[in-house]
Amino acid sequence: MEIELHKIKIKDLVVGYRDDGEGGVFGYGGRLDIRPPYQREFIYPDKKRDLVIDSVMNGFPLNAMYWVVRDDGRYEVLDGQQRTISICQYATGGFGYRLGNNMFSYASLANDIKEKFDNYELLVYFCKGADTEKMDWFKRINVAGMELNEQEIRNAVYAGPFTKKAKEYFSREGCIVSVIGAEYLNGTAKRQDYLQTALDWRSQKDGLSIDTFMSNVKNDENEAEKLHSYIRAVFTWIETIFPTILQREMKGLPWGLWYNDEKIRDKYTMADKMDLKMKMQKLIEDDDVTNQRGIFAYLLTGEDKHLNIRQFDFKQKRKKYEIQGGKCAKCEKNFDMKEMDGDHITPWIEGGKTEIENLQLLCKSCNRTKGKR
């Protein structure tokens, strides 16, 4: 990994500055991609933006920035995007800066102040290396306070046609994944959360890590379209099968991992939707079901552990302990109450309730033996 510290003057940084919206933001004579397609939009509030300019005006040091050196010799900002845009916007008349009691645009600054601003030196690390080296190094500097999250770092390391196209499908405000995904996925599109979730689900389907998957497809924009088709298929499957009576509980569940499993994915058809609705309603109304988010996992896998079935409380177990005379209901040996477990005589799955009439106390050994049958 090659890392070189450079001092870049503001007057050189702002040469050729332009903001093409979705097309990107550029500076440093057109050689610096300030907002690569995978990066976040400019989100600095005015107060924080003004502090950047104030630091420059007073000669205070700004934190070091990091630029990725591309194979073609150009650069892209990995960390420092918002500081860079703040500086460039001010230098090109984007906003005014309060100096004393007055507001000054860059053009209205006195020549000596303008010269001081122009010659302010930014500390910039140029980073060049193999994908694996960059990924490891970017993670290290992220610990030191970078604002990029895990997926944004990956997008920097594996930047190429895939990440550029993926933004159109997963990161743009108002895109289909952004609209539909808000109902089923955690996070936001802008912070690359939806893209990361889709990559996680899709890569696991092939038994790969996200990093390996992105390394394999980074130069193929068609793979971004395939990933988009995949996540749309997951959304369609959810909407086709499940009613929305638990819409809030549907958010953030591992839908793609269930979709990847053919046995789970094909367990229900459109014809089962009304029956599923009745089952869900029954589970919602069951006082023993303490985790309604687990209803979906239970219906798909049949594992009642996802429901967190209500356990017998201390008062119930104490009363039953007295009724059983301190003996295990199976081996009939005496035990302290703390050495015994509350057990459903008729399992919940067979309609048994968490009521004292359906309670028996078993020693831990007998309870484990029963659980293995």
Q: Termini separation (Å)?
A: 57 Å
User: What is the overall shape?
Assistant: elongated
Query: Structural class of the secondary elements?
Result: alpha+beta
Mean pLDDT: 89
Topology pattern, helix = H, strand = E: EHEEEHEEHEEHEHHHHHHHHHHHHEEH
Number of helices: 17
Give the helix proportion (percent range). 40-55%
Q: Sheet bearing the most strands, described?
A: 7 strands, mixed
Order of the strands making up the biggest sheet: 1-9-5-6-4-3-2
Q: Roughly what fraction of the amino acids lie in strands?
A: 5-15%
| Low-pLDDT ranges | none
What is the topological layout?
Elements: E1 2-9, H1 10-13, E2 18-19, E3 25-27, E4 32-33, H2 46-57, E5 65-69, E6 75-79, H3 81-91, E7 97-99, E8 102-104, H4 111-118, E9 121-128, H5 131-143, H6 150-157, H7 161-170, H8 176-184, H9 193-205, H10 210-217, H11 222-241, H12 255-260, H13 262-265, H14 273-285, H15 294-301, H16 314-323, E10 340-344, E11 359-363, H17 364-372
Parallel strand pairs: 4-6, 5-9
Antiparallel strand pairs: 1-9, 2-3, 3-4, 5-6, 7-8, 10-11
Helix pairs in contact: 2-3, 5-6, 7-11, 8-11, 9-10
